Amino acid sequence: MPFIMCYTNLSKDKLPDGFVKWISELVSDVLTKPMERITTTVSTDLEMMRMGSSDPTMLIQIHSIGVFDADRNPGYTEKLNKAIHEKLELPANRVALQYLPVDKVMVGNVP
User: What predicted TM-score, i.e. pTM, was given to this entire model?
Assistant: First the structure.
């Protein structure tokens, strides 16, 4: 069920081919959620500022059921930042990750 919303000021042509699939597979692996349950949106070419700068940046919001807490989130952050840095060469301080826990009754999903 995870919903991934990825916002960036990078232009679409600066993202590698297949980025939406890659970020979906990455989150699937990190959260141990099945790919067939993931919905991903990537919005590019946005006007964005992070830490007082409009240098290349990315905000990734991940909504999911039953996986976010104080013990697990640091491990998710480490794995996600490392992979994003390797793929896009964005420093960790240019990537904001937001984990949004969702109660299962708040999701309307057709099996």
Answer: 0.92
Q: Determine what percent of the chain falls in helix, strand and coil, rounding each to the nearest 5.
A: 35, 25, 40
Segment holding 99, helix H or strand E: strand 95-101
As a whole number of angstroms, the distance between CA 104 and CA 1 comes to 9
Q: List, for residues 13-30, the tens digit of each pLDDT value.
A: 999 999 999 999 999 999
Place of tokens 């697990």: 72
Which residue blocks in the chain are alpha helix, DSSP H?
19-31, 73-88
- The b/e string for 11-21 (b: 16+ C-beta within 10 A; e otherwise) is eeeebeeebee
Confidence band, pLDDT 50/70/90 cuts, at residue 110: low
